Amino acid sequence: MAIPKLGGGKKLEFTPMTWGQLAGGAVCIIVALILGWVSFGRWRFKAAVISAYEAFDQGNIAPAKVDLETAIGWNREHAGAHELLAKIECEGGRLDKALAEYNRLLELNHGSPTVKIGMGVLALKAADRAESPKAAADHVKTAQAWFAKAGGVPEGSVGLGHCELVLARKLGDPKRYDAARAHFLKVASAKEFSLAGAVDYYAGLGAALGAADAYDPASSAALRSWYQYAPRSHLPFAALLRVEAERFRRLPPDANAMVALKSQGAALGREMREKWKGGRDSFLLLLDPWIVYSMEFARAMARAGDLKGYEEVYKDVLGSVPFDRQTDPMLFDAGVRLDLALKETEDTSVQEKAVAFAVSGLGELLRDPRRFSAADDATKDQRARVHNAMGWVEAWRGGYEQTTAMGKRSHESALNRLREALKGSPDDYVYNRNAVVLMKRLKLPAKDSQAFLDKAKAAASKEFADDFAKVQQFLAGE
Predict the structure, then answer these.
(1) Which domain holds residue 309?
(2) pLDDT score at 324
(3) Positive or negative: CA dihedral 469, 474, 477, 478
(4) pLDDT tens digits for 171-191?
(5) Is 259 contained in some domain?
(6) Same domain, 300 and 383
(7) Which of 68, 176, 193, 206 could make an S-S bridge to 85, C-beta 3.0–4.6 Å?
(8) What is the pLDDT at residue 351?
(9) Which of 372, 389, 420 is the last residue of a domain?
(10) Closest C-alpha to 84, from 169, 171, 165, 194
């Protein structure tokens, strides 16, 4: 007998126990996803922070900033990320963004000494940007308050020293440099600086010592220490070049002293060459202070009588800098040659040698059409100044040979130079005045110099009023 077939299809039924098991599994999956996301977030945050610190230590600021912003996106309360981002924004000149980061740290009750010092640094940077002395002084007062709140950490005293440096610059008060030195020397024995604190300390100490009336070797030593702590920055070496340039500028014309310093000066030049080998970009960042240093070093040799050494350094500068930057050292060279030519001496042979040295350099400057083309309006003022300088040197030579035919030729050559200068600047007081004086010395008729005298009179402002009165006395034979 066949068994009858049951009606209907398959039927799925859930018992209460089944529903409970499914709900429990779903909860476990949700919890697992949440825990996984939290773990991923922690890993992503940690990876971004580590990457940011590594990039910052290597000087890769842009990637460090991106990583820090990523890290803060995962953890908005991490004080270290906010603090480093604030430092990056501050050093990049984005003071508003840096202030926002520091204010966020204060909201998180993270008022550590480094945060207070950072707020002080922001106020100092604002003082540097201030256009009026009063505004600068107000910002400095704010900075001083924050540095004072930093407690006994040495960076606080360093910050106070930088406040005095800013006031010295903004208020034009050299006594502030003494106050700055006192702050820096107060912490000279501090053993535990942060890296940033050491950089600020040696940078400030070098600036304060370098502003003294007399050269202090400790200023160069401090700047070299700054360079050791910040080798990737061009600022320490630039500051060192400026201090050393000022040292040679103040050096008296002492041949014996120059012999002792010549090797030191050359050594700094070799360091610069090593930087040039290390990268063209680094060299160009240091180009201006290096030109100033090299020419002051060369001028010190020239004043000490070492003209050969002077020309070696000068030619080295011209051979090292780009063509479009050669005009400044060439004009500096012209000034050095003129100083030597106009130096008082009773030995006419020494005077003649100095004048020849000056004229040769000035003539070389004018003969190069790439720099001072007669058709180039942009350089006509420079050409006029060089022609006037050459004219005055020739007039000087004619002055001590005025009883000879050579003296007359020197005066005539000088007058021709002044006429060339007047082509570029026909209304200039100095050029017209010099032309009048030379015509008088050449005993030319007064009518020949009248036009130049009229222009000199018209251009004789308050600045030249006394000089023009002396010219009139000279013409009257008084």
Answers:
(1) 234-325
(2) 66
(3) positive
(4) 888 888 888 888 888 776 555
(5) yes
(6) no
(7) 68
(8) 66
(9) 420
(10) 194
